[in-house]
Amino acid sequence: MNILCSFAFHQLKRKKSRTIITAAAITLSAALLTAVVNFAASGNTMLSGFLGSDYGLYGNAYAFTLLIPTVFLAALIIAMSIIVISNAFRMSANERISQFGTLKCVGATKNQIYKTIMYECILLCTGAIPLGILLGYFLSFAGIGVVNLYIEDLNVLVRSMMKQVNFHLSFVFSPAALIISLIISLGTVLFAAMLPARKAMGISALDCLRFGGETDTSGYKRTKIRIDAKRNMEYQLAKKNVSSNRKQMHSAVTALSISIMLFVTMSGLKEIAEGIQNYIYQDHGCTVVADYTAKFKNTIHPKTGRRQQECAYPIDAQTAEEITEKLKGYQDTDIYGSGQDYSTYAAILTPQDLTEDMQKVLSRQSGKKPEIILDVERIILDDKHYREVCAQAGTDYGGTILLNDYKYNDKGTERHIPPLSMTASTLKLEKADGSLDHINIDGVLTVSEIPKELMYPNTNPIRLVVPSEGISLRGYNWMASPEDEEGFMEYARAVLESYFPQNGMDYEEAGYTSRVYGAQDFVKIMNIAIILAAFFLYAFVFLLGLIGVLNVISTVSFQIKLRARELAVLQSVGMSSESVQKMLSIESVLCGGKALIFGLPVGMCIVFLMARCVKMLFPISFHMPWAAIAITLILSLLVMWGTVRISARALKKQNIIETIRI
Amino acid sequence: MEILEVKDLTKMYGSGDTQVTALDHVSFQVKKGEFVAIVGASGSGKSTLMNLIGGIDRPTSGDVIVDGKEIFAMSESALAIFRRRNIGIVYQFYNLIPNLTVDENIMLPCLLDNRKPDEQKLSKIVEMTGLSHRRDHLPGELSGGQQQRVSVGRALINDPAFILADEPTGNLDSKAGREIMELLLSANRKANQTLILITHDENIALQADRIITISDGRMIRDEVMRV
Amino acid sequence: MWIRKKELLSLSEGIRRALDGQPFDPRNNKEGAFSILKNDIYTLTHSGQEQKNVLAEEKEHLAEYLSDISHQLKTPISSILLMTELMADAPEKTKQEFLQSIKKEIRHMEWLVTALLKMAKLDSSVTNFHREEIPVSLLLGEALKSVEIILDIRNQTICLKNDLSLYCDKKWTGEALINLLKNASDFSVENSEILVDCGENPLYHWISITDTGEGLKKEQIARLFRRFESSGKENGYGIGLPLALSIMRGQNGDIAVSPGGHGSGATFFMKFYK
Questions:
Q1: B85 touches chain C (CB under 8 A)
Q2: What is the ipTM of this complex?
Q3: Pick from C29, C225, C257: which is nearest to B81 by CB?
Q4: Whole-angstrom Cα distance, residue C208 to residue C220?
Q5: Which of B69, B127, B182 is the best substitution to test chain C (most C C-beta atoms within 10 A)?
Q6: Which residue in C33, C203, C249 is closest to B182 by CB distance?
Q7: Same domain flag for A596 and A452
Q8: Which residues of chain B make contact with A108, given a CB cutoff of 8 A?
Q9: Structural contact between residues B157 and B106, judged by C-beta atoms closer than 8 angstroms
Q10: Domain boundary among A519, A545, A560
């Protein structure tokens, strides 16, 4: 074996524990990179299978959605790996600095020193990278398996709600992906090792010999901290040591704080997602929904310039009622039918017609105007429930009832206000063609009186429940809570199919669609998505954090050996070993503290910012992921405690005389 | 022809107020086969002189000409290679690579050239060091004196132009020190190996053919002890 | 490894120039087997040059010896001439004295010439040494024959502590031993015992002679081995020790001195390298 290679080999053999830790870090890094690349490859396959090999219309958007997270994750992994692996090799080089000095004196060139370190890297890579890639494949295989577990459910749901889809994430082995992962992981590790190697080869032979086994003393910075005899000596020494900015501690702290930040951010994301999920979850008071939707087109009326809607296959109230009865026929299930029409009328109002709150909201949205035109939502219900609403409002059957409630997003919180001031009991309505109508309001229901089936996410300010005769709607839905959900859903599908045959065509082609689904299905989809994302992100952060922890452990144990002479001198001058240990513990706490002080706030800030953005769209209830923050604190403390323990053990092993002499 | 010529060698450290002149225009020549001892108190500049002769340090001004080659005209890599092939260095502190065996340590200059020395020659040198029965041992398993002997062996393996030794016995007890001197002397006598030895020990210096005395960076005496 | 034909040709031309006696240094101090070859070629061509240098030096040495001889002979010769001049007119008693002096000077000259010539021969490596295995006790016995008288006068004895067999030239080594013993006798006090010891180590065999003097100072050691320096005592013509040194060096050996001091005498080591 080449002599330089044998140097590297001996060094690896000598420092078995560090070798193992470094190899583990390389393996993890390679594994994560491979997993990410492979996932991207599989995702790519799935999407191209789904959308056609050129991704169809939205090609770029999809490619982006896939590429951006991949690149981002990969960049994160690479950055982390470089910090950690570079640190490991730097420690190895520093240890052998006197050896390098001897070699240079005997006649080794800079290049040969450089190669010695690089050989160490290569030797480790020959074992660690293939292992890492295998592990990565295993991880991605497992991951895809997990995804597929849920994806079937996803498929079923989406199929019932939208299109016929068949998402299936398959484990793809593409040689291209393998080569890419190989190149990237190898490149990362080699680059990481190159940094300290270049530095080592630059040190002159004289410096190597002069400083024996210590690092070059120029690595210390002058600090403003002065030691006085007043306060705790150990604390002061510890503070001075930490601020002297040793490069290794720096990297350990950075790696740790990145991990903390990521962890907090991920938890925050999860909180936000759950908030969105909660927002979407609406208790409609039913478990199954069957609906009919017809395709529509928005056009502009040539004369008035107003928006109008054209619908090819509207459903009329009578048909709706028929279907309601039919559905009731299944096990005597209670059906709540309702249909909405948003496009026929618009109400013309003056500011006096509106409540003060409503005026404020509108002026915020569109400025002060003398005449306000708002879209009117007309709601028809099935006969039975229409009767109920009329009775509740105190009018006779056949009246128009106003649901006086407006729900909107007030800077992130959900607010309900009554829009109309009820000064008048007649509403002036305008149609798209410009003709006017007047409607009497026979009854009003306030927010507490409105049945929950009629409280849905987005509402118009003006909502009227009207008698159903003669009205045709674009869409109508039937809500029920049957005992036998599966059976009901099958029955309902059959019924709707009989009325509105699809003939195998989808929404676009037929011009309408009818579907039957579980009320919370949409939420369920979100739930699944959240679970999957959380699982992967947490796994990712965990593994990344693992790399960080490995780094801290090896750095700390190396630091002890590095400062062996320093510590031995302290002991010989008269510092008791408990005192020294205390100083080391304080240093360790300070370093961990630094990591926390940087990582936590940054993470929390990011989470806060993201939540604000989301809140502008969805008024979700959101709070900081305090649980995650607590976990982070505990883990960091554990890591610090662990390092203190290690340093204590290493310290005990030292013999003062031996250390100072050598 | 001289195997070593030191011309007007000067080395200064620092600048302005803190400038220190470690060597001040030192010049001398060494013939092949000579055994020169360089003596002086600590801090007199002898170690600096040795580092410069060995090409490990660069002078502020002046030249060192080894075997006809101006060593400071070469690039750092070329100088390292030149040193590998033409100069043998022995330091005061153990200068062995801890994870190489005695054999490998002695062969180190050749290994760096990616070649193995003649087996007979290697055996002869190992025999000279008196460690023929410990060829497989690591430096950690040897005593200080034995380690120094290996260092001398390493310095001899390439038949260098001269051997440079900086207080080779400084860290050893008197018996081990004597052994090292015998080793160096026998190389000097038998193989006509030029030897340049830095020492502060008079008894050792007396064994040399020539004593050069350095004080405060200047050469103040150059006596020939024996012809 | 790809070597250009041009480089091979230039190397070859350089070697030819070196054979002609011109300087040639092909070393380029790079990595690789070709550079190592160049280094080896330099050593090879250089060694020839070195041998010539050695020969030139030896010629110089011989010249020095010749000048030494003539210088050293001048004094006794002029002394003899003077005396012969005066003898003609001197009384009988003075004549006898003169004759004695002349004899003494002639013996001195004879000794000088022989010794110097020996040294010259030794130093120019013309002498043939016949090496054989011989025990130290035998060597010592032979040497004692020549120094008995001196030892007797000063009432000194020799004690041999150890015995072993060495490989050396009996006659020459004996002569060196005689000179060292004479020297030891000179430096030792009267009525004392001069210690002779011998031993062996991985590098050489050795014989040591320890006197009972006061030890040597640094300046003395330097002068000991220089020809015709006064050693501070008479009875030597200042040539015994340098001769012994030449003898040892010629036999692939050496003489080392341990100065002693503080009450103990100096020890001279004869080293016979293996």
A1: yes
A2: 0.80
A3: C29
A4: 19
A5: B182
A6: C203
A7: no
A8: 80, 84, 112
A9: yes
A10: A519
Residues 6+ apart with CB under 8 A from A371: A348, A349, A350
Mean pLDDT on B136-152: 88
Which pair of structure tokens corresponds to residue A200? 């080592």
- The alpha-carbon gap from C91 to the nearest alpha carbon of chain B, in Å, equals 48
- Decide which of C112, C127, C142 is a domain's last residue: C127
Same-domain pairing of C28 and C93:
yes
Domain span including residue C108 = 1-127
Q: How far does A218 lie from chain B, in Å, by closest CA? A: 16
Query: For every residue of A249-278, which 3-state class applies, written as one string?
Result: HHHHHHHHHHHHHHHHHHHHHHHHHHHHHH
Q: Is residue A642 part of a domain?
A: yes
Residue A487 has pLDDT above 50, yes or no: yes
Tokens of A235: 């604390």
Amino acid at C170: K
**What pLDDT, on the 0 to 100 scale, is given for residue C100?**
86
Identify the closest residue of chain B to A101 by CA–CA distance.
B95
Q: How far apart are CA A184 and CA A310, in angstroms?
A: 56
CATH class of the B2-224 domain in this structure: alpha beta
Answer whether B112 sits within 8 Å of A103, measured CB to CB: yes
Neighbours of chain C (3+ CB pairs under 8 A): B
Domain boundary among C81, C103, C127: C127
Q: Shortest Cα distance from B33 to chain C (angstroms)?
A: 10
Shared domain for C147 and C116, answered yes or no, is no
pLDDT tens for each residue of B188-209:
888 888 999 998 888 888 888 8
- Least Cα distance to C209 among C167, C116, C147, C121 occurs for C147
Say whether both A349 and A312 belong to one domain.
yes
Helix pair C92-123, C240-250: axis angle to 10 deg: 20
Both C123 and C138 in one domain: the answer is no
Number of domains comprising chain A: 3
pTM: 0.67
Whether residue B69 and residue C257 make contact (CB cut-off 8 A), yes or no, is no
* Domain co-membership, A459 together with A565: no
Chain C nearest-CA distance from B81, in A, is 5
State whether C12 and C69 are in the same domain: yes
Q: In sequence order, what are the residues at sequence separation of 6 or more whose Cβ sits closer than 8 angstroms to the Cβ of residue C61?
A: C120, C123, C124
Let me know: does A485 contact A288? Beta carbons within 8 Å.
yes
Strand boundaries in A441-474, DSSP class E: 443-445, 462-465, 472-473
Question: Distance (Å) from the C-alpha of residue B68 to the closest C-alpha of chain C?
Answer: 8
Neighbours of A, requiring at least 3 CB pairs below 8 Å, are B
| Same domain, yes or no: A313 and A455 | yes
List the single residue in A10, A13, A107 with the smallest CB-CB distance to B112. A107
Q: Report the residue of chain B nearest C53, measured CA to CA.
A: B1
Name which of A12, A7, A41 is nearest A26 in CA terms.
A12
Specify whether A29 is located in the same domain as A109. Answer: yes
Distance CA A146, CA A149 (A): 5
Residues of C in contact with B82 (CB under 8 A): 27, 29
Interface-testing mutation among C51, C203, C255, with chain B (most B C-beta atoms within 10 A): C203
DSSP characters over B65-97: EETTEEGGGS-HHHHHHHHHHHEEEE-SS----
Q: Which residues of B touch C29 (CB under 8 A)?
A: 74, 77-79, 81-82, 85
Indicate the domain borders of chain B. Answer: 2-224
For residue range A496-553, list pLDDT tens digits in order. Answer: 888 888 777 777 777 788 888 877 777 777 777 777 777 777 877 787 777 777 777 7
Q: Provide the domain limits for residue A359.
A: 288-519
Q: Is residue A74 part of a domain?
A: yes
C125 touches chain B (CB under 8 A): no
Question: Same structural domain for residues A207 and A293?
Answer: no
